[in-house]
Amino acid sequence: GESVGLHLPTLSVQEGDNSIINCAYSNSASDYFIWYKQESGKGPQFIIDIRSNMDKRQGQRVTVLLNKTVKHLSLQIAATQPGDSAVYFCAENSAGYSTLTFGKGTMLLVSP
Amino acid sequence: ETGVTQSPTHLIKTRGQQVTLRCSSQSGHNTVSWYQQALGQGPQFIFQYYREEENGRGNFPPRFSGLQFPNYSSELNVNALELDDSALYLCASSPSGTGELFFGEGSRLTVL
């Protein structure tokens, strides 16, 4: 689940494992979803997106799954590497505008 | 092609002062959005500019204001700074009609 303040949910994995990061979104009218990766001291970096007319989309080592029934989004990272260590945010967009609502984030820690 | 650039990268102000943050959008992007990211939180939408007009605003008071220039670069101004304004301020640009945002590295503001 999500937490408030400075206590981000944290997922710790070993290098080579598959990682799954989950996100619950709030607006049933949202039609576009993006996952961002944010490394310490940097801005969010686009990973993968999905539109509401899809339930799965694959990229390089990453897959996003969308379940509109329960308003749930997940990011799967295959063969996780130490360079994947970062905070991951899901973001939702509605009404076709480039305005995103971000979740609170999940910290992924990958041990060599 | 250059990405989104922001300045300054870090700055310290005292309560009651005013601050101006600057952003150059990615080449070809005519929409600029500003987000505030408090420590341990996801980015929060402040406002968006399209063709030099404000095109959407989040839940921020009027002392947060902005400008967009003909070359699509943008400024964020914050008057009467408060301690809670301490945060990372992120600028993001996007091509017209898409929801995909490209973020800069941010300006970290500390208010003492």
What does this protein look like?
- The complex is a heterodimer of chains A (112) and B (112).
- Helix content of chain A is 0%, strand content 50%.
- By secondary structure, chain A is mainly β.
- Chain A has strands spanning 10-14, 19-24, 32-38, 45-51, 56-58, 62-67, 72-77, 86-93, 101-102, 106-111.
- Chain A is globular, with a radius of gyration of 14 Å.
- In chain A, strand 3 and strand 4 (45-51) form a beta hairpin.
- With 112 residues, chain B is mostly beta strands.
- In chain B, 0% of the residues lie in helices and 51% in strands.
- Chain B has no helices and eleven strands.
- Chain B is globular.
- Classes of the chains: A mainly beta (112), B mainly beta (112).
- The A-B interface holds A 5-8, 32, 34, 36, 41-46, 49, 89, 91, 93, 96-105 and B 4, 31, 33, 35, 39-45, 48, 55-56, 90, 92, 94, 97-106.
Brief characterization of the structure:
Chain A is an all-beta fold and 112 residues long. Chain A has strands at residues 10-14, 19-24, 32-38, 45-51, 56-58, 62-67, 72-77, 86-93, 101-102, 106-111.
What does the secondary structure layout of this molecule look like, with pairings?
The complex is a heterodimer of chains A (112) and B (112).
Chain A: E1 10-14, E2 19-24, E3 32-38, E4 45-51, E5 56-58, E6 62-67, E7 72-77, E8 86-93, E9 101-102, E10 106-111
Parallel strand pairs in A: 1-10
Antiparallel strand pairs in A: 2-7, 3-4, 3-8, 5-6, 6-7, 8-9, 8-10
Chain B: E1 5-7, E2 10-13, E3 19-24, E4 31-37, E5 44-50, E6 53-57, E7 64-68, E8 74-78, E9 87-94, E10 102-103, E11 107-111
